[in-house]
UniProtKB/TrEMBL annotation:
Highest rank taxon of the organism: Bacteria
Domain DUF5606: 2-47
UniProt-listed Gene3D superfamilies: 1.10.10.1650, 2.30.30.730
Domain DUF6852: 50-118
This protein's name: DUF5606 domain-containing protein
Source organism: Marinifilum caeruleilacunae
Length: 138
């Protein structure tokens, strides 16, 4: 689901990897659909590699997104512009054992903003398909 979806420091929103160029990745913004090169000098993070700290270890971002999706029945999450206390309360609902000392409000804002972007672009449907494929393999 999160394969090929990237966060690039210095740029808001999320990007889908479109292709490789000689010394850059060609990415497309999920916000305005514009394409641009992303160079190795930018800090590029693949969403599939991101995890949230909990008291028991790290939880992959995809699992957090699944929890939000279940809570909201596939709808939008809380706005990333909500107050810090509202964001903390919402995070406690979707990931009750998140590490309050290491997960900052700024991290929560990104998680909820990213979730809402993926939801608007119908990219969360992949979560269910991936889960079904994993269950059939077992």
């Amino acid at each position: 689901m999160l394969k090929g979806i990237l966060a690039i420091s210095g740029h808001s929103g999320l990007f889908k990897m479109v292709s490789n160029a000689k010394n850059a990745l060609i990415v497309e913004s999920l916000v305005d659909k514009k394409r641009m090169p992303a160079y190795a000098t930018s800090k590029i993070s693949a969403l599939e590699d991101i995890a949230i700290f909990t008291d028991e270890g790290d939880v992959p971002l995809a699992d957090v997104f699944k929890n939000i999706k279940e809570k909201e029945n596939g709808g939008k999450a809380i706005s990333h512009k909500a107050s810090g206390n509202e964001l903390k309360g919402y995070m406690a609902e979707v990931l009750p054992n998140y590490d309050e000392d290491r997960v900052y409000v700024s991290d929560m804002k990104k998680v909820f903003q990213w979730y809402n972007l993926l939801q608007e672009n119908n990219l969360l449907e992949e979560l269910d398909k991936e889960e079904e494929a994993e269950n059939t393999e077992e």
